[in-house]
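User: Assemble these into one structure.

Assistant: Restating your components, then the assembled model:
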Amino acid sequence: YLDPRVNDTVEPASVRWVSNQNTRWGSCTPSTGQIRLSDRMIGFPDWVVDHVLAHELCHLVEGHHNRRFHELLAGFPNAERAEGFLTGFQWAVSGEADDTRNDPDDNPADQSS
Ligand SMILES: [Zn+2]
């Protein structure tokens, strides 16, 4: 589903669940190829977890949420649906849904990842 620039060149060093990410769904370290997924997503539908994983894979090629990044991710299905699921889950557990956070790894304290 992903752009050949991601599909043909990116091989993550590791993908693992972590329990210390409460404000982000995923994160990655491009220099080491490590991807971390919040264990809050364990049990979520595969297409939701896959959306976050695809997002982080694209970050191994492009670190910023810029036009190039969105081009890399554009072919992945169900993006809007998955974002809606994540926003709805957040609303259900916290009573608030911040529509300005449109990326699964946006962190109010760290906008760089
Ligand atoms: Zn991101």
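The two ends are 22 Å apart (CA to CA).
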